[in-house]
Every structure is written in structure tokens, then in C-alpha cells.
Amino acid sequence: MDLTSLATGHPKPRLNVLLAGPRGFCAGVDRAIKIVEEAIRRYGAPVYVRHEIVHNRFVVESLERQGAIFVEELDEVSYDAPVVFSAHGVPKAVPDEAARRKLFYLDATCPLVSKVHREAEHHFARRRHILLIGHAGHPEVVGTMGQLPDGAVTLVEDAEAAAAVEVPAGRPIAFITQTTLSVDDTSEIVAALRARFPGIHAPAKEDICYATTNRQAAVKAIAGRAQLMVVVGAPNSSNSLRLVEVAERAGCPRAMMVQRGRELAPEIADGLVTIGVTAGASAPEVLVEEVLARLRERFDLAIEEVVVAEETVTFKLPAALNA
Is 271 left (phi over 0), alpha (psi -120 to 50) or beta? Predict the structure, then answer.
């Protein structure tokens, strides 16, 4: 019993917490952060980063304290400092511009996003028109569409769009996908595309990354047992937003997102027996610990970790940082 319980004379109510596993950082996010940290260690501060390295303010602010400077465009970069491209990938015009400006750059694009870029190039070389399943404006979608000339890729955001999308006459069709989508939503969109275009070329292996798939599966595994799902993530993080949606669709009465433990009002769990907690792929485990600490202010927690997959994937750093 802690001091709060002693002061009130009443023990804290028990709250069961189901911790989803896997949760939090994936290999691509871990690699991207290490690229920035190693660049600062090797070359000294500042190291510039074009856009948020990953979609998490805690991570961004931590890197800023180490000497990273986040910019929107390359014209903000000093010529004598390295620049890192974010994990989401960039259009080809960005490294081309960096080379024109004679900037030293490091590409932190997740290798699984790079795989989708290579798929797009493969289809384009075979004169196929490409349908990209994804969310308009997301940096990954911007980067993927920017691998090819304008008009080579058409964005399809949902099943309704899939049923109506117009494609060039007489051209073979292929589809690729953003890596952080809802597995269920994407299956519905793909089914709609296959119904319209029976000969459509599909990825040899699905584009939705292993981490997105595993985190959604873990949420599904606990959603039916939880009365509330707390997702630690950022509002501009696609994979985190999808976890909220997946929880609700899998039977959890309520799902919510918080960026930090301090954002969670612990009384939201008053009267509940069991809640679930997970984290998006760009949220570090320390933020999950913040949420648990916040809940402990009001409840006696009984924590059960529900693991649906073990992740052993790692990605190498760029050759320039391995030398």
C-alpha cells in the first residue's frame, strides 16, 4: 500500500492491464533514430533532419537536445553539416536537390518503405499503371509517388475510391500499398480492385510491414477482453491511428490515444475491470511506462502481457556510418 492509500485509509481499487505485445518501436524506427544519434556522435552537432525523423514529439525533442535541427526543406540546411532524410522516405527530387547543393546526406528511409519504392520502379519499367493504396498527404505516400513521374501512380484511399478509380486504357495495372495501413481496410480495398481488374499485379509479398501487422494483431488479441484501449502514439502517426481503429472494430467499447502519461486522466478507468495498453511503432517504451505510472496513482495494477509475435528484425545503418 502506498502513501495515497495510507492517507485515505482505503486501498486502491484493482485494475487489470493487458499490455499488447509487440508494441512500440519497430526496427525501421530504431534504425532511423540511431542514424541521427550516430551522425551527431561522428560529425558533431548540428545534424539537420528533413521533417520529423519519426512521428513522435518525445523522440524529436530528445534528438534536438542532442544536437539535431529539424527543418522542412533543404534550403534551411547549412552546407557544412550532414542532413538526414526521415524514416518515411522522400521523393527522388530531394536527394537530387541535396546532390545539386553538394550536401552530405544520410537516408534513414525504412528498408521496408524502400522495398515499396523498388516495387513501384519495377512496375513502371514494365509499363504498368500503378495504384497506390494509402492516405493522401502522408509523408510515406508523398515519397512513394515521388519515385516516378507525375501521372504514373494513382492514389486509392478506400474501397469506394477503388470501385471508381479511372486507369489508362490498354495498360496493365499493378497495386502497391503504404506500409502502415489497417490490414483489414487494405484487404477490403484490394478485394475491390481485384473485382474490377482481375489481372492486376500484386506485390510478391504484402507491403504492409511486419511491425504494423503484429501491433494490430496484438490489439485484436486483447480488444475483446478490455473495456478501454489506451494507445500511446502521435496524432500524425498513421500506424498509431490505425491501432485505435482496430481496437474499436475488434470489440473494445472505447479506444483513445495519448502522447504522454500526463495526458491520461486516470479516473477515466473508474469502474472498469480491465483495460488494454499498446503503443505505435514510433513510440518508445518509456512513454508506456509513463501511462502505467499515471494509472498507478489511482489503481493497484495487475499487469498481464499478451504477446502474439516475437520480433527479431534488425536493419543495418548506412554504409557511411559503418565505415
Answer: left
Integer Cα distance of 260 and 256 in angstroms:
12
Structural domains of the chain sorted by starting position, each given as residue range(s) with its CATH number in brackets: 3-25+210-307 (3.40.1010.20), 27-110 (3.40.50.11270), 111-208 (3.40.1010.20)
Q: Residues 6 or more apart from 322 whose CB is under 8 A from it?
A: 316
Alpha carbon 20 to its chain centroid, in Å, reads 16
Residue 140 catalytic?
Answer: yes
- Give the pTM: 0.93
Closest CA to 141 of 193, 177, 95: 177
Cα 228 to Cα 49: distance, rounded to the nearest angstrom = 36
How is 196-258 classified by DSSP, letter by letter? H-TT-B--SS-SS-HHHHHHHHHHHHHHTT-SEEEEE--TT-HHHHHHHHHHHHTT-S-EEEE
154: helix, strand or coil: strand
Task: Kindly report, residue by residue over 62-75, the tens digit of the pLDDT.
Answer: 999 999 999 999 99
Q: Give the orientation angle of helix 27-43 with respect to helix 111-125, to 10 degrees.
A: 110
Retrieve residue 7's grid coordinates. 492517507
User: Do the bridges between strand 255-258 and strand 228-232 make them parallel or antiparallel, or are there none, so unpaired?
Assistant: parallel
- Name beta bridge partners: 302: 16
Among 38, 140, 188, 248, the active-site one is: 140
**What pLDDT, in 10s, does the model give residues 120-164?**
999 999 999 999 999 999 999 999 999 999 999 999 999 999 999
